[in-house]
């Protein structure tokens, strides 16, 4: 017969009771732990390349620095407008920054899809779409300032005579999304929307109209965002299909010339929605190579938060022995540093709090019912080293702030704050505290400055740092604190 607790001596009963109680408590704690994990806010956007909303990226390395020219998203007016032209730069491909505008006369206009900066004739040329038309611009440096390469450096609506394409149609020359490629012989080519391509004249600001072709592809329908590059004697032409969550890239190859003829492999789709990794609508971006290597990378925008609230991600591009491109293993995790760069040591933020937190945003699908995302805005997201997440204050919060708790008093040498919508500028006050109650200013600026990150060099000892946002969108993508 099986013994019961009632048949045990008192001392053994106490032991059995204690063991049972402990087991029950452990099960309770385990359940609470699991529930707390489920309650934690998640970041469905992964580690975007840039701590901002950008699309249509053109990325290249110039003299040891990575340059990213792109459409600035996140202005909440759909296709009616865009952010201003800024160029993000990085030495390691992880820490990015910009300061001011690289194309001053285009500020305030609808600025889309700039090309890479093309070195030619001892200058740099760039080919953005401004107010719906492609324009050539020129500068003495990839940093700018760029200006229109033809005529007066000024834009007017609907378009000016300085457009790259010319037309007698009163509606203007049709075409957006210029991609420019210079071959080994110095000849330049331009590719644009709807599968068009042509030679550029040696002046780099006009098109050889006799050479214009429309590339015949096996997949039909609207196409934009062309990508063109050459590797091991093979020319690659990439073109988009669809849009939103259905955005894709297909490609063709030529061993003859940049204008073809092109062969199109059977497996010609290299990027499409990846449900396993929750990557939706990988579209308009670029391919770039790290000079001196056979390392190629594919950058693409992702559907993200619908409309013009997109971010850009990068994955490695791989090739088969015959030169065909393998379908890209799309993830939102990024590729990490491409060059080693010594940096200050970061201080871990153990806890964060803010004046308020914006309510969760449910992002609805547009074409794909399997798309489901909810964006949360926890203050902890400002310290998670992932550019896809952010802290945002509640809309009614007119005196927003965020606090970093370093666990104990520490020597602090620097602070870098990546604000939300940085291209519109911010003013802020940086404060320090030993106890979280008494604060004193230690950085920031009263005037609105357009840059990211906003950097403060410090030489203080404190446990807490606080950023009080005076002007600009009340939110932070990332905040780095250094010792």
UniProtKB/TrEMBL annotation:
Domain spans labelled F5/8 type C: 350-483
Superkingdom of this protein's organism: Bacteria
One GO biological process term: carbohydrate metabolic process
Active site, per annotation: 56 (proton acceptor), 224 (proton donor)
Any Pfam family hit: Glyco_hydro_43
Keywords: Glycosidase, Hydrolase
InterPro entries named in the record: FA58C, Galactose-bd-like_sf, GH43_arabinanases, Glyco_hydro_43, Glyco_hydro_beta-prop_sf
Site note Important for catalytic activity, responsible for pKa modulation of the active site Glu and correct orientation of both the proton donor and substrate, residues: 177
Keyword field contains Magnesium: no
Keyword NADP among record annotations: no
Associated pathway: Glycan metabolism; L-arabinan degradation
GO MF annotation list: hydrolase activity, hydrolyzing O-glycosyl compounds
Recorded family membership: Belongs to the glycosyl hydrolase 43 family.
PANTHER family per UniProt: ARABINAN ENDO-1,5-ALPHA-L-ARABINOSIDASE (PTHR43301), ARABINAN ENDO-1,5-ALPHA-L-ARABINOSIDASE A-RELATED (PTHR43301:SF3)
Protein name in the entry: Family 43 glycosylhydrolase
Organism field: Paraflavisolibacter caeni
